[in-house]
Amino acid sequence: QVQLVESGGGLVQAGGSLRLSCAASGSIFSINAMGWYRQAPGKQRELVAAITSGGSTNYADSVKGRFTISRDNAKKTVCLQMNSLKPEDTAVYYCNTVPSFVIWGQGTQVTVSS
Length: 114
Description:
This protein is mostly beta strands.
């Protein structure tokens, strides 16, 4: 059974940075695109960054130029470096395959104060 465990969230002031990490178990990791999603209160979950097994990346317009996704296939981890954070980045952040088909983990809360 594949499991995803996110970590690294916290409270940060606008303009600050955070680095999120996701540890995955199971054999699917190295062959699937992975992504970071987020869900803000009252809003639908959205995909903000994705990375293929070969390392190609794609970002939502709202985070382009500020967030960087990376992965280590040997360690089965995917990270999200978030810089120049804004209050509107406040959300619970999750990792999953792209498209998502693994049971969602607990996520990690990111709160950006103005």
